[in-house]
Design brief:
By secondary structure, the chain is an alpha+beta fold. The chain has one helix at residues 12-63; strands spanning 83-85, 101-106, 117-121, 124-125. A hairpin with a 2-residue loop joins strand 3 (117-121) and strand 4 (124-125).
């Protein structure tokens, strides 16, 4: 009277099906995750430039001219980690009396999006695709609806 020993476990086919399912899910999830991470990094640039814009308006109210350097503004804001900060320049009127522009350029690895730029002026985010190249990247642009 020997008892039959029942072996339990997964078959090779069952394991292969699970691996295929995980692969399909990863193929959809990884690109969306990368875009989400890059969008949060781009939001850092928008946050920084929004703070600069507000400080520029305060500076203009006191001095009747826009500041030509970030250090002259009344904010203690560290430079963005993932972007290089350009120089403040005169805007569309070619005079700091009534216009300014500042561009941040993405540095380092950007999940395949390249070195895109974000530009602000005295009016806010500059949507000109020649100046703010992030406009071409709908999936990472925090300003897209």
């Amino acid at each position: 009277m020997k008892k039959a020993i029942k072996q339990s476990g997964f078959t090779l086919v069952e394991l292969a099906v699970v691996i295929v399912i995980i692969g399909v899910l990863a193929a959809f999830a990884v690109p969306r995750f990368k875009a989400s991470v890059e969008r949060s990094k781009a939001a850092e640039a928008f946050n920084y430039l929004s703070a600069i814009q507000a400080a520029q308006e305060r500076y203009h109210a006191r001095q009747s001219i826009y500041a030509d350097e970030v250090n002259n503004l009344d904010i203690k804001f560290s430079a963005p980690k993932y972007f290089s900060v350009g120089a403040i320049a005169a805007g569309h009127t070619s005079s700091l009396q009534d216009s300014w522009t500042l561009t941040l350029t993405r540095i380092g690895a950007s999940a395949g999006y390249g070195a895109y730029m974000v530009t602000f002026t005295e009016e806010g985010f500059d949507t000109d695709p020649a100046k703010s190249t992030i406009m071409a990247e709908d999936e990472i642009n925090p300003m897209q609806t």
